[in-house]
Amino acid sequence: MELAADAGSGHLMNLPIPTPTLARLNPHLFSPSGLAPLPKGHSGHTGTVRESELHEEIFDECRARGWIALHGSMAERTCRTLGEPDFTILADGGRVLFVECKTRTGKLSPAQAALKFHAEKLGHTIHVVRSLEEFRQIL
Q1: Per-residue confidence (pLDDT) for residue 2, from 0 to 100
Q2: Residue 18 located in a structural domain
Q3: Distance of CA 70 to the CA centre of its chain
Q4: Three-state DSSP class for residue 63
Q5: Which of 11, 20, 108, 135 is the most buried (most CB within 10 A)?
Q6: Residue 123 reports pLDDT greater than 70
Q7: Closest CA to 48 of 135, 107, 131
Q8: Higher pLDDT residue, 41 or 80?
Q9: Phi (first) and psi of residue 49, to 5 degrees
Q10: pLDDT of res. 21
Q11: Domain count of the fold of the chain
């Protein structure tokens, strides 16, 4: 199924949720042109200065690939599990990626480290990335 919609048009996609509702609930999946804007800010091999900039770059990359990026808001309190990775990404080929973003000097909290360790014991990988380039390397 192809994900193509104009959030402002009110057209329904071939989904059970109307496009305007989907766009409101997942604004990172949509932009007025249907394409992601070019990311702002710095992100190089040494890592990003601001984690929020890296989050936007990852949203843009996922949108460009037609993937779904599930992410809790950094700006407001959410009902997320303590230590949960920043992103759960539904990629092509049935792949699911768990991604934790950190600045170039950021460290995992004890809860994040514990969840990462437990997930790895269960056979899952939580990727810690510090730049868009590092994110692209795990794809």
Answers
A1: 38
A2: no
A3: 6
A4: helix
A5: 135
A6: yes
A7: 131
A8: 80
A9: -80, -40
A10: 61
A11: 1
Look up residue 17 and give its amino acid. Answer: I
User: What is the rounded CA–CA span in Å between residue 118 and residue 18?
Assistant: 37
Residue 30 within a domain: no
What letter represents residue 57's amino acid?
E
Report the C-alpha gap between 82 and 113 in whole angstroms: 11
Average confidence (pLDDT) over 38-55 = 66
Examine residue 29 and state whether it is found in any structural domain, yes or no.
Answer: no
Whether 97 maps to a domain, the answer reads yes
Residue 68: beta bridge partners? 90
CATH code of the domain covering residue 97 = 3.40.1350.10
At residue 58, the pLDDT reads 97
- Domain extent for 65: 36-137
Which pair of structure tokens corresponds to residue 6?
């104009």
Q: What is the pLDDT of residue 104?
A: 92
